[in-house]
Amino acid sequence: MYVVCLDLEGVLVPEIWIAFSQETGIPELRRTTRDEPDYDKLMRFRMDILKEHGLGLKEIQETIAKIDPLPGAKEFLDQLRTECQTLILSDTFEEFAKPLMKKLDWPTIFCNSLEVDQDGTIIGYKMRCENSKLTTVHSLQACGYDTIASGDSFNDLGMIKASQAGFLFRTTDQIRADYPQYPAFEDYDELLNAIRGVIARK
What we know:
Helix content is 44%, strand content 20%. The chain has helices spanning 16-24, 39-53, 57-64, 73-83, 94-103, 132-142, 157-162, 173-178, 188-200; strands spanning 2-6, 85-93, 109-116, 122-126, 146-151, 165-169, 184-185.
């Protein structure tokens, strides 16, 4: 049996940090895992920027409340879930993801959690496990599942490489050029048909 593992931000919903950057007018917060492969370095950078500007979880959640799924994402996910077991693997945080999962009709998501002090300041974060996307794919495979993975960023490449089939979706020109062996799609119908093709060959 196949399990499809999907990234969240950039694939199903807009990038949260980019939306927050636009909301606050802080361009440094536009930096995402598309730009920085070292996730810990990226998060430390973000927390420093938040501290510098006196911003915390409350302000980020207020921005997230205004974010809707990308056009066509919910319909794609609804159809995929009728055809195959589907799991969202994200390096976002529970504190960010919940309102977005509601708008997607509560798909299963594995993600991380934030450490927040009494004032709402983000003081740290806790990864669900090391190399969480890759580790989860390996764990599913150890349970007897085959995996199909799709994402757009550096932190998705591990699960894409480790899966029986992997696809890039709305990725950067640089990642597309560096990993030409993985089909790259811009349209949900193309991605859905590619996944169907893999399942049909089983």
